[in-house]
Amino acid sequence: MRVPIGWLAEYVDVPTGTTVDELDAAFVRLGLEVEAIHRPEEVTGPLVVGRVLEIEELSGFKKPIRYCQVDVGEGRPRGIICGATNFAVGDTVVVALPGAVLPGGFAISARTTYDRVSDGMICSVRELGIGDDHAGILVLAGGGQGSEAGPAPGTPAAPVVGLDDVVIELAVTPDRGYCLSMRGLAREMGTGLATAWRDPAASVPPPAAAAEPAWQVAVDDADRCDRFSMLALEGLDPTAPSPWWMRRRLQQAGVRSISLAVDVTNYVMLELGQPMHAFDRDAVKGPIVVRRARPGERVTTLDGADRALDPDDLLITDDSGPIGLAAVMGGASTEIGDSTSAVLLEAAHWEPTGVARTARRHRLPSEAAKRFERGVDPAMTVVALARAARLLEQYGGARVVGGPVDVDTRTGREPIGLDADRPARTAGVPYPTDEVVARLEAVGCTVTTAGARLSVVPPSWRPDLTDPADLVEEVVRLSGYDAVPSVLPTAPPGRGLTEEQRRRRAIGRALAEDGHVEAPSYPFVGMPVFDALDLPADDERRRVVLVRNPLSEEEPALRTTLLPGLLAALGRNVARGQRDLALFEHGSVFPGGLRRPAPVPGVDRRPDDATITALYEAVPAQPWHVAVALAGNREPRGWWGPGRPAGWADAVQAARRVAAAAGVELTVRAGERAPWHPGRCAELLVTDGAGGERVVGHAGELHPRVCAALDLPARTSVMELDVDALPAAAVPVGSRLSTFPPVHMDVALVVADDHPEAAVRAALAEGAEELLEELRLFDVYTGPPVPEGHRSLAYALTFRAPDRTLTGEEAAAAFTAAVEAAGRATGAVLRG
């Protein structure tokens, strides 16, 4: 909501000397966020109001040129050259006299042009920096018979055209729709500044009563429209322009001027908060009926779009069918045109949630819908009609025909019970009962006191006040949030991070310390991403949980794997010129599958235990995963060498780092799972409590088809691991320090490729038994003389006894036993 301070000051007695910054602070104190402050461009020097006395048309030039005699209040007129033709003798205009400097540093001086001396300049809106219209001169008032008299010649023009009017732009929260009007903001600022304010609705006389309304109206759905009012006018001059002050205020509020009838409805909406619509009365066929859409109905709205209607859409119709999408946008068939002289004004009160559904269904976020879905004052419909009719009569010569139509089925609001001490108990600030009552009455509530119990009836313009907590918020807000003390709660002893939280943080730190960059993503995916990942049709990761109201229709599902978001981040960085990337993400995934349907509890009471249990049972599992994606070089190139590209082994090593940070040990073996390359995929296993092994993740290179589908570099490597599937870490026990010397021995074993290294390692450890202190793989070799289909694995073994110095025979026996165990388990033989 853009708020011109000059307009607001008409309804609020702003204390003398109040600065814009102080008004900004007052809005903030009232809970209204100030998004921006728009100050007009500076104009210096003499800028006055002038009246055109004579116009001489100059010929012989390539474009129309006029030499005008303009009264600027100096006793004699000034001669001014002007190329615009949209003004006439008698019009009131804005004149920049010599010495004035307009926005952009445009200095005005007397100069000879077109064989005449131009002693000033008649200004347009753009030249004054108050708009973008450069089609013609700004005419403040016409000189024709019956036109509104403009300011006297010589009057300083800056205040007249709003050159000193600052506009404050507010972000209005959904629960405070009444602040989308000058009426609502005047009440707020009057309260916030502790000064008098005037309700613009109070000064509007009601429309004249007549024996018969000029139009017949029926409302078929009173639940969605509890008040519908109309007023008919005729005799409107279709050529009558909107007055400058109205066009200026609409422009300041961000609303485009269209025509007098449309501008008046928009102006009244901004002033009183009641959206309206003007129909061309001659185009309306028969009585007006407010009803829901029927199957197959369509309507062409004012934006020219032909829209298929939903049975939930509420319509304004006549005998020809739909002529408006209620509360959202009017229909093109009854649009106000250039020749419209008979107008039918409509103002109604619509149920907010239905308006919100219609606006979102048709993607029509109109200014009217924005207000209706937040709640407007139902008492304003007839007042708004009277205000609009008066403006159309004053500036367009229209006259009211018949009496107003007012179909009103509203019921009174129920009182809300409130303990007088509840605001004090909530905020921790003493609020006496008198202050509580005064604050609520300032909001517009009717308060009845019965001892320590208050009965509060909210005003019609505050539909957001429905519960005692809402009233408490109003008391605290108007008394000042800054009066609420900031007291940090005392942390109870013995609490800290849970084991699960410590594990997750340790994993993130370990990956970051290893050179990976965290790249969190949204947990939403679209179904085509699973095709890009080449997942089989029966893969469990294709069974997703769909979000009922997704942020994007293209991504309506919750992720079942971290890879889509992580690989998308990798692809974006590659596309922007990054070469060497190591990204990671950890977060929840949401496996789909059959689940119990969730009940929909009411809002009138707390759900019972059975309903809460059913809600929790309907929530999908949310295991915590961690994933890594690698592309480019893992070790940078430099003078020391060409660098080393990242590969599947780096993805496996990242998994080992995760496991180490979690306090568990991984076993790695060859596996196969999309989207990894079948020959370059490792299964990640852990030992469960029963001594068996369980797969907790996979690591390796992506399949080339996946890299091509996602525009990723060839041989991109990824890892994904289920952190929640890792067993609890054992209590760490420090290793025993031995004072006895170790025995170091190396062995190179030739093993067939189909035997994983982990199996060889396990066999060596089992054969060496308790004398083996450390076992480390330090070399892998393929090629002659190693037979094809085999590889050489070189290990360093450290033997040590905790209570004595090992003899050579004991160390050799343990070494031989380890090699023999590896031979029995995997067929490994000593490399010659």
Helix amount: 25-40%
Q: Give the helix/strand class.
A: alpha+beta
| Rg calc | 39 Å
In the CATH hierarchy, the third-tier topology of the largest domain is known as BirA Bifunctional Protein, domain 2
Q: What spatial order of strands do you see in the largest sheet?
A: 28-31-32-38-37-36-35
Instruction: Name the CATH superfamily classification of the largest domain.
Output: Bira Bifunctional Protein, Domain 2
Q: Separation of termini?
A: 85 Å
Strand content: 25-35%
Shape label: elongated
How many domains? The number is: 6
CATH class of the largest domain: Alpha Beta
Named at the architecture level, the CATH assignment of the largest domain is: 2-Layer Sandwich
Low-confidence region ranges = none
Task: Describe the largest sheet.
Answer: 7 strands, mixed
Question: Based on DSSP secondary structure assignment, what is the total number of beta strands?
Answer: 42
Overall pLDDT confidence: 90
Number of helices: 21
Describe the structure.
The protein is an alpha+beta fold and 832 residues long. It has six domains: 2-39 and 166-192, Phenylalanyl-tRNA Synthetase, Chain B, domain 1 (2-Layer Sandwich), CATH 3.30.56.10; 47-161, Beta Barrel (OB fold (Dihydrolipoamide Acetyltransferase, E2P)), CATH 2.40.50.140; 217-408, Phenylalanyl-tRNA Synthetase, Chain B, domain 3; 416-479, 2-Layer Sandwich (Phenylalanyl-tRNA Synthetase, Chain B, domain 1), CATH 3.30.56.10; 499-725, Bira Bifunctional Protein, Domain 2 (BirA Bifunctional Protein, domain 2); 743-830, Ferrodoxin-fold anticodon-binding domain (Alpha-Beta Plaits, 2-Layer Sandwich). It is 25% helix and 27% strand. The chain has 21 helices and 42 strands. It has a seven-stranded mixed beta sheet with strand order 28-31-32-38-37-36-35, sandwiched between helices. Strands 3, 4, 5, 6, 11 and 12 form a six-stranded antiparallel beta sheet that branches. Helix 6 crosses helix 7 (260-272) and helix 7 (260-272) runs antiparallel to helix 10 (381-396). The radius of gyration is 39 Å and the shape is elongated. The termini are far apart. The mean pLDDT is 90.
